[in-house]
Design goal:
Blueprint: H1 4-34, H2 39-64, H3 68-86, H4 88-91, E1 96-97, H5 103-123, H6 128-154, H7 171-203, H8 207-219, H9 221-232, H10 236-259, H11 268-290, E2 294-295, H12 297-315, H13 320-328
Helix pairs in contact: 1-2, 1-7, 2-3, 2-6, 2-7, 2-10, 3-8, 3-10, 3-11, 3-12, 5-6, 5-10, 5-11, 6-10, 7-8, 9-10
Length: about 325
């Protein structure tokens, strides 16, 4: 029977992770506004990065703590969950329209990041050189996005960036939120990694499975919360943009920093199954955006069914690479 302390560590860490991320984002947005940052900058940098911080902290902590399987599993699993869960759950309640302003650039970056991850890890392990490549692409995309959004803003075109009209908490409280939120994220990520690693060892489950499932869903909770709020306000552009931005930062940001920790060999499980699903999820998201699809309950149920099939295949050891070789051979 799993140790209750390990279970408490994992669940408590996930709750603390969500609270810490919320405090950090609220504090950063309010402080940025006080320092003269425009809603554009707050939207592109602070909010998009804020909802991705759980994945980054957990993945980086896992990698530097000697649990690379958890780190890689969290990165890949979160990229899959962001499409099949984060997009589907809000659409069960409110219809979501895909294909808003600025999503073309973000979609291209998402597809590029996914292709880079799958392609590069297929021929070599993660290493500092790969990490530098990922981080340079992320910096280049961020700079290009800011330039393009500023240009559209000056021209009076819709930027697709959510404006934060409310002042939020008082500045003095926001300045407290910043260090408290950051400290909570650091502490929570440590609890999560320790609890996950301990449970994996006790139950005899590969840590990659924990990262792909429990950690991936747990660290995607901030995106789910933000997406439900966006859907309720009929801001499908914000919801889809949040998913795109999260996957870009998750793969290139978290993946790049994890690679900087040293050589990380990718388990065969990823090459034979999860990377195929990761690529398929990116293609599904691209199809929804390019066709400007209206995502209602039926489509949401289909996305959830696809995620259930993915988990079923993961648990039962399905090899899509083996299936491809049989068909192609």
């Amino acid at each position: 029977m799993p140790d209750p302390v390990l279970i408490a560590s994992l669940l408590g860490g996930l709750v603390l992770l969500a609270l810490g991320g919320d405090l950090l984002v609220r504090g950063a947005v309010r402080t940025g506004r006080a320092m003269g940052a425009s809603p554009l900058i707050a939207g592109i940098f602070i909010v998009a990065l804020g909802t991705s911080l759980p994945e980054i902290f957990v993945s980086v902590n896992a990698a530097f703590s000697g649990s690379p399987g958890l780190a890689v599993g969290n990165i890949v699993g979160s990229s899959i969950a962001n499409v099949f869960l984060v997009l589907a759950i809000p659409a069960l309640i409110f219809p979501v329209m895909a294909g808003g302003p600025g999503q073309g650039r973000a979609l291209f970056a998402t597809l590029l990041a996914t292709a880079l991850w799958i392609g590069m890890t297929a021929v070599m392990p993660l290493n500092p050189l790969v990490g530098i490549c990922f981080l340079c692409v992320l910096i280049g995309y961020t700079g290009l996005s800011l330039f393009a959004a500023r240009r559209d803003e000056v021209a009076g075109k819709p930027t697709g960036v959510r404006e934060h009209k409310s002042e939020g908490p008082p500045l003095w409280r926001a300045l407290i939120y910043l260090p408290v939120g950051a400290a909570a994220l650091v502490f929570a990520s440590g609890l999560i990694v320790d609890g996950s690693d301990g449970l994996a060892r006790v139950a005899g489950i590969p840590e990659e499975y924990i990262g792909l499932t429990l950690l991936a869903v747990g660290t995607s909770l901030p995106e789910i919360g933000a997406s439900i709020a966006a859907a309720a306000r009929k801001r499908g552009d914000v919801l889809v943009g949040n998913i795109l931005g999260s996957n870009i930062i998750n793969i290139l940001g978290a993946g790049g920093i994890v690679a900087m920790s040293g050589e990380v060999r990718i388990a065969r499980l990823f090459h034979t199954y999860d990377h195929w699903v990761m690529g398929f999820a990116a293609v599904v998201l691209a199809a929804l955006i390019l066709t400007k699809a209206k995502i209602g309950r039926l489509m949401a149920l289909l996305l959830l069914l696809l995620y259930a099939l993915y988990i079923y295949g993961l648990v039962n050891g399905v090899s899509l690479l083996g299936l491809y070789e049989v068909v192609a051979g």
